[in-house]
């Protein structure tokens, strides 16, 4: 659904497509840095199959001079590094859109459905890279130069971005890439067409950072004072391991690339026992391997943070795509019953703040906390204001880190279910911790007694009463009264907020509740929100309606309509927009 840009708003959508191995994402993110530093708001979406080389890869960048919340489907400039890119994305091109391609790759005359209104721009990328003694992979840099040249945008921004991108490599690599960009830029100046986009850098009062969800989580963990991060690489959590490996050592963090996910979970339980704020992260397949050790964290009352970043399952599923299908898994993982908190960030700001808060909650409750994300938020970047670190607080709960204790019982039965925790080395604290049910000392031999089991089980579960007082409440967006009230969780927040802004421009009012804490479930707040609504809907990225099932179970309520997506792609705001228009007739 091509959408008209409101008068007075500058917005351009650029898509780069081609086979894996040609630097599609690297080129796109270089362009994103250019426009973010030039004062624009940006949001991107990378889509790629789980192939090292080949397949169809795309990077879509949205650029706007006004606040935006997500990607969109429309494309104004299509950089096609192969014929497949044109045939697959013709339907997304807006009126007058430009197509930049290398005539040595294919001819536009051989493609059916090419509209007369399109601005077709052949750029001899292959010839240019040979002229500057570059490599074939540098065709994307030539294309970026051509894009900026036709937009009459200063090339210096791209040159600075290239220098930064290749700063860790031989200086000659950056120089050749800059020559490629300059050649593409100059070609555009000599071969103009009716290109409708003329953009200039703009002044902004507040700076922006370009960041993805995993980088935001990493920064949140560092702000929280993380001491240990362990992980085995698994998409989409792998980039968090890369981030921590790159930045952790300078900040005193032990970063361990473990042999598998079982080791990662067990090691962070050990790290928490030693007093370090400890975290691991993985996707559904890895978390499946972690579940027994996750239960160890529950019975040993270990303060660990676990990132569960969802991709479509079951089994290997679709490793590089996205879904919201692990909610029920997160709520019930590991055998038996024990308290846990599940937090679901909806955007990068959430990712940062919920991460440092997760460490506090884990320490205060002495129980595991799950950060439940997905590939859409983990892998994709947007421009955001620098995070407000003044909000960051450190709360280690009932922790004795030094000195001496008397009459120490690690699992003392208390009214709030939380016992004093003394670190190894504290005088007078006998440390007995294992995976068995246990008595107040920690001795497993006594844990099988009925009265001991009852006392310890009830003690642990009382933590959930405290949890309800300290977990973040739902977030609300839109007017108090609306034509439609939407309930959602996680990264679906971004495209729904974007669609809400479009609908508001047309006088259609929508409000939204984002469930931030998935467990303990905020039943009272959800029931109140739905009870006041004229019409209700739930939007979530799974087949079975996992949030909807929680509403039925916890609130004894249901909604009128649902919108589900489970094809591995995130919701697009256009899809949400059409859904709301259909619901409201």
Summary, kept brief:
The chain has 585 residues and is an alpha/beta fold.
Task: Write up what this structure looks like.
This protein is an alpha/beta fold. The protein is built from 19 helices and 22 strands. The strands form five sheets. The protein has a seven-stranded mixed β-sheet, sandwiched between helices. The protein starts with 10 loop residues before the first strand and ends with a helix. The model has no long low-confidence stretch (mean pLDDT 95).
Features:
22 strands; 6-stranded mixed β-sheet; alpha/beta; 36% helix; 585 residues; 19 helices; globular
Radius of gyration: 26 Å
Largest sheet: 7 strands, mixed
Averaged pLDDT: 95
CA-CA gap between termini: 18 Å
- Which structural category do the helix and sheet elements fall into? alpha/beta
Strand content: 15-25%
Secondary structure tally: strands:
22
Helix count equals 19
From the spread of the alpha carbons, the general shape counts as globular
Helix residue percentage: 25-40%
Biggest β-sheet: strands ordered side by side in the sheet: 9-8-10-11-13-12-20
Low-confidence runs of at least 5 consecutive residues = none
